[in-house]
Design a protein that fits this description.
Elements (H helix, E strand, L loop, with lengths): L1 H4 L2 H22 L24 H13 L5 E6 L3 H12 L4 E4 L15 E2 L3 H9 L3 H20 L4 E10 L4 H16 L8 E3 L1 H7 L10 E10 L1 H14 L3 E3 L2 E8 L5 E8 L5 E11 L5 H8 L7 E11 L9 E4 L8 E6 L2 E10 L10 H14 L13 E10 L15 E4 L5 E4 L6 H15 L27 H9 L3 H11 L3 H6 L23 H10 L5 H8 L2 H4 L1 H19 L3 H16 L17 H8 L8 H11 L11 H13 L11 E2 H9 L9 H11 L6 E2 L1 H16 L3 H7 L13
Bound molecules: flavin-adenine dinucleotide.
Length: 759
């Protein structure tokens, strides 16, 4: 018996089993999304960066037409997800890149998606039941890209649990197997494993769900993002790496050399009405649903390759879904799939795939809106009245499904993306999905390098699986706390800024005017219900190329996607802020407000609504403004102020205090030569200087050491001005608050048994 138990065979089996359990346990505990590491560095602003202006971008485009040395390697037409992804890829390989967009970046399909970063459970279902290998490959690739997506732009994307409600017992094993296959396919790139929920647990997690007939639910995980902000982040990343990108610049003609090969395009600035030629070694057509009109410019008799399919979405108030759980009904009354997802504080519900015609601003048809409401009603509890009046916004997006032009006419649509090179050398990339924008960019640039003969120009291979998008480096999940502590923002505003701008939120805050209230100190809201603040409008104009009111309300701030009526109310103030920065005339302001009202009509605003009147100011306000006494500073003074205030806490300092600190610091540093072009003061000098400042006389060496530890500067030997201000800010709190020693003396220890059961 003893020998049998300890035989070599049994020992091997036991060892293997123990190893498997330990390995499995380790893998389970370490699965799930990896978040960027937080550090003390993420508590303070990153170095400020102001992108080149739109005028500089247009000048660079003009120059390429007149001087061969300024010719671009590639010119990309279309500033949606696809074009922006190609631009990031090409510029990070060392190519000279230009991108032109006829409307605004992300104004097409890329701002109107379901906002999922997903492999697609419904595609997996098809792959299995129709034994479709192409479909399987599509899901596999998208799951791989999902992981990269969440790592390269961690602040703009998040993991979202999605519930599949089960109303029949046979659905339990069916959907369970499907979800587990989805997990397995993702492999080590899976987010969290799917799980089964009892009826009680399902209703606890999603109380709005209809309980009648419910037998349980399955929960699986996918990613979610803010599509147009992601698109803008891609454009700004490309610009940071040196690309030239211009919105409101339309390609009106393709230019060819004597042999019929493309060597540039003619563009029109749709805001100024001017036209000129742009020269490039190669041209890439990334115009999504508008691919065919572009191909017609190249060859008027070309065979159409895009079959647009529309998908509509509606936005409902937040009480329609829990804040952190989505819902998917894979089999609606007419066989379509419907999503019901929390997004930016509200709920979006949408269905996909209805064949449609191509148009610039498609409108969600009323019957489609009612169909979604009907479906929503089917799985919500009867005590929830689903009202048409609860539809806050509605929009329609066009999916560019593609057909291979080289294939026979009977061939079906290509479900993935497709790269196609015309005889003239025009390289077209179309189809695919948001989730796979990066892989599409990589494939396109690989092909472009070959077709355009750019082998000698690239400096490296594709790096976009590692390139973190702008705003990611100094972002951490707790960064919003730093914003509150520095700027005195409301918590929801701080979270919203951190989640939409990443580390650029510091710059947004530096543009925020004081509220004039006890709390919050900064962050005047555009609408009281939503966390969007006026500073975002200024930031959009100065740092993200917003040129029209629609650019701001639709693509930079997402208010029009959340609530069209509330957006209408904000228009006069948005126009006013933009007019200050862009020097708009009265007639331009009027045209902007009319254009924005028309746009809101395509976002579900009832027809016949008149544009709100522009803001008017009283005689006294105008008088002060004329005398230059208002906050409307000249643009030069404003640039200086922005640069200075960018990194300092205005919550902690009185007006003029920063300037006084700056003068004192500069006076002291003039005694020393500059180190590496930056003026710094040694550790001992800093405390010496601080003690000599008015109001800081009581600062002790101990306070100083304490603050250095708190700020993360304990190991530093010298300090620049920003760091000096940070130390002063922290010391100010200590000097003005009760002395720590007194507090310690008052605090007597309470024995655990008398602590009242608390921790
Ligand atoms: C309803 C719906 C829901 C979706 N949901 C998801 C989802 O949840 N997850 C996912 O991964 N994918 C989703 N997708 C797919 C995804 O949104 C698209 O694949 C992607 O946005 C397409 O991007 P694009 O850049 O190719 O096209 P677009 O975003 O349409 O960009 C093309 C751009 O080209 C510009 N342009 C056109 N002509 C010219 C010209 N002559 N000169 C200059 N510029 C020009 C246009 O103005 C436009 O901005 C969804 C699609 C739809 C329709």
């Amino acid at each position: 018996m003893h020998r049998r138990i300890f035989s070599r065979r049994s020992l091997t089996i036991v060892s293997l089993a123990t190893g498997t359990v330990l390995g499995g346990g380790y893998h389970y505990l370490n699965s799930g999304p990896s978040y960027p590491l937080s550090s003390k560095e993420t508590r303070r602003p990153p170095p400020p960066w102001t992108p080149p202006s739109r005028k500089e971008m247009l000048d660079a485009l003009v120059k390429s037409g007149s001087s061969p040395a300024d010719e671009f390697d590639v010119l990309i037409i279309g500033g949606g997800a696809t074009g922006a992804g190609v631009a990031v890829d090409a510029v990070t390989r060392g190519l000279k890149v230009a991108l032109v967009e006829r409307d605004d970046f992300s104004s097409g399909t890329s701002s109107k998606s379901t906002k999922l970063v997903h492999g697609g459970v419904r595609y997996l279902q098809k792959a299995v039941f129709e034994l479709d290998y192409e479909q399987y490959k599509l899901v596999k690739e998208a799951l791989h890209e999902r992981k990269i997506f969440l790592q390269t732009a961690p602040y703009l994307s998040n993991m979202l649990p999605i519930m599949l409600p089960l109303y029949k017992y046979w659905q339990v094993p069916y959907y369970w197997i499907g979800c587990k296959m989805y997990d397995i396919l993702a492999g080590k790139e899976n987010m969290e494993t799917s799980y089964l929920m009892t009826k009680g647990k399902a209703l606890e997690a999603f109380p709005m769900l209809k309980s009648d007939g419910l037998v349980g639910a399955l929960v699986y995980y996918d990613g979610q993002h803010n599509d147009s902000r992601m698109n803008i982040a891609l454009i700004m990343t490309a610009v940071k790496y040196g690309a030239v990108a211009a919105n409101h610049t339309e390609v009106v003609k393709l230019l060819k050399d004597a042999s019929g090969k493309l060597n540039g395009v003619r563009v029109r600035d749709n805001l100024a009405g001017k036209e000129w030629d742009v020269k490039a070694r190669g041209v890439i057509n990334a115009t999504g649903p508008f691919t065919d009109p572009l191909l017609t410019l190249d060859n008027p008799s070309h065979k159409p390759i895009v079959q647009p399919s529309s998908g509509i979405h509606i936005t409902l108030p937040n009480y329609y879904s829990p804040r952190t759980m989505g819902l998917l009904d894979p089999a609606t009354s007419d066989g379509r799939v419907i999503f019901f997802l929390p997004w930016q504080g509200n709920t979006i519900a949408g269905a996909t795939d209805t064949p449609a015609a191509v148009e610039a601003e498609p409108k969600a048809p009323e019957e489609e809106i009612r169909w979604i409401l009907e479906e929503v009603r089917r799985y919500l509890s009867p005590d929830i009245k689903v009202r048409r009046g609860d539809v806050l916004s509605a929009w329609s997006g066009l999916r560019p499904l593609v057909r291979n032009p080289s294939a026979s006419t009977t061939e079906g649509l290509v479900r993935n993306h497709m790269i196609y090179v015309s005889d003239s050398g025009l390289l077209t990339i179309a189809g695919g999905k948001w989730t796979t924008y990066r892989a599409m960019g990589e494939e396109t640039v690989d092909e472009a390098v070959k077709v355009f003969g750019l082998e000698g120009k690239v400096t490296n291979g594709c790096v976009t699986d590692r390139v973190r998008l702008i705003g990611s480096d100094g972002w951490s999940r707790n960064m919003f706390i730093g914003l509150i502590q520095r700027y005195g923002l409301s918590t929801d505003v701080a979270k919203h800024l951190a989640e939409n701008y990443g580390d650029r939120a510091w710059t947004v805050c530096s543009l925020a005017e004081p509220t004039g209230q006890l709390w919050p100190l900064h962050g005047i809201r555009l609408n009281l219900q939503y966390p969007f603040i006026e500073a975002e409008v200024r930031y959009a104009v100065r740092h993200e190329y917003a040129q029209t009111v629609v650019d701001v309300i639709a693509r930079r701030c997402r208010l029009s996607f959340l609530n069209a009526q509330a957006t209408l109310g904000t228009l006069p103030r948005v126009v006013e802020i933009m007019a200050e920065d862009l020097n708009w005339s009265h007639s331009r302001q009027q045209a902007e407000i009319e254009r924005a009202t028309k746009f809101l009509a395509s976002m579900g605003l009832p027809p016949g609504i008149e544009p709100p009147p522009l803001k008017t100011h009283s005689f006294m306000e105008k008088f002060w403004a004329f005398g230059g006494f208002t906050a409307r500073a000249s643009s030069e003074a404003r640039t200086l102020r922005v640069a200075r205030e960018m990194v300092y806490s205005r919550a902690q300092f009185e007006a003029g205090e920063i300037s006084a600190l700056h003068d004192a610091f500069t006076a002291r540093t003039q005694q020393y030569p500059a180190v590496e072009e930056e003026t710094r003061l040694g550790r001992a000098d800093v405390i010496d200087l601080i003690k000599s400042l008015k109001g800081y006389e009581g600062v002790s060496q101990k306070d100083y050491e304490y603050v250095l530890t708190e700020t993360g500067f304990a190991g530093k030997s010298d300090f620049n001005f920003d760091e000096f201000v940070e130390v002063c800010g922290e010391l100010r709190d200590i000097v003005l608050s009760p002395a720590p020693k007194a507090l310690v003396a008052e605090r007597s220890r309470i024995p655990v048994e008398k602590s009242g059961g608390g921790v």
